[in-house]
Amino acid sequence: MTHLHAGLSPETIEKARLELNENPDVLHQDIQQVRDMIITRPDIGFLRTDDAFILRFLRARKFHQTDAFRLLAQYFQYRQLNLDMFKNFKADDPGIKRALIDGFPGVLENRDHYGRKILLLFAANWDQSRNSFVDILRAILLSLEVLIEDQELQINGFILIIDWSNFSFKQASKLTPSILRLAIEGLQDSFPARFGGVHFVNQPWYIHALYTLIKPFLKDKTRKRIFLHGNNLNSLHQLIHPDCLPSEFGGTLPPYDMGTWARTLLGPDYSDENDYTHTSYNTMHVTHSSSNLERECSPKLMKRSQSVVEPGTLKHEEQHENENTQPLLALD
């Protein structure tokens, strides 16, 4: 077994072989083939090209070397084209810090039955006088950078649940085509993560309307992985077991504490106001796995931005063949 598989269980290594075409016998050759393509893009500064880094791009594209290189190039090109987004790209950056404290994103400690990490977004918690959409996107990308260091997640992937409860039309009006495209390019086209599903719950009609804005930017594979559940818990639970979900989504876990992931990145002494001074978490120097960090975080409850959804808000409905259970959007 190559050193690049250190820490992976035999089951996960076998899953990578079956689902991602990962072959330990030729792993270094696969990585080198991608690295050799870098010379074809002198316009891009490839700031990191070590084996472990390139491997995550191969896994994200099921070991198709050309596709993996294209993703690697887009990763760095996106950062070159959006330099301001990645200045001071650390958890203690004021904009990123505020977004993290307000629960953008939420990250569940436990994984689902397929080993995927579950990310949560409570859309109504977006205080537009406090957080810009770009800072929320930066906080999400920073969080993914931390999480993707875990090789298990490179193989198993992620699930995203977006709760639109109480998300107003005024808030939705700020989701312009330009910023939605910025998010799609950053997540769909330029990041080496496997998204197994994007689930909308409690979405109002105007969120449906946003589909017409973002459809041109979505790939077919992405479209097939976004599901609109409305307030139908049954359709959600058919895809994500209730044992993995907090009570806001009809799950058996306690209500989600919005401060959990912020404390993981900022440290146990973080403040939910503006007086935080603890040493920041820099994603370029990851020294602990995210699972260890999550176990170590403080149980202190957050004063700001608790979930806007009370336990039991969503309804159990009889399953119907309607648009709420059909894929709407998706990441390729």
Automatic annotation (TrEMBL):
The record's listing under CDD domains reads: SEC14
Return the PROSITE patterns for the record.
CRAL_TRIO
The answer to whether UniProt assigns keyword Membrane to this entry is yes
Provide the membrane topology annotation. Answer: Peripheral membrane protein
GO cellular component, alphabetical, reads: clathrin-coated vesicle; early endosome membrane; trans-Golgi network
Q: Domain CRAL-TRIO: where?
A: 96-257
What does the record give under GO molecular function?
phosphatidylinositol bisphosphate binding
For this chain's UniProt record, which GO biological process terms are given? lysosome organization
Region Disordered: start and end of each range? 287-332
Could you list this entry's UniProt keywords, alphabetically sorted: Cytoplasmic vesicle, Endosome, Golgi apparatus, Lipid-binding, Membrane
Where located?
A: Cytoplasmic vesicle, Clathrin-coated vesicle; Early endosome membrane; Golgi apparatus, trans-Golgi network membrane
Q: This protein's superkingdom?
A: Eukaryota
Q: Where is the composition biased (Basic and acidic residues)?
A: 313-323
The entry's function note states: Required for normal morphology of late endosomes and/or lysosomes in neurons. Binds phosphatidylinositol 3,5-bisphosphate (PtdIns(3,5)P2).
Name used for this protein in its record: Clavesin-1
The organism's lineage is: Eukaryota, Metazoa, Chordata, Craniata, Vertebrata
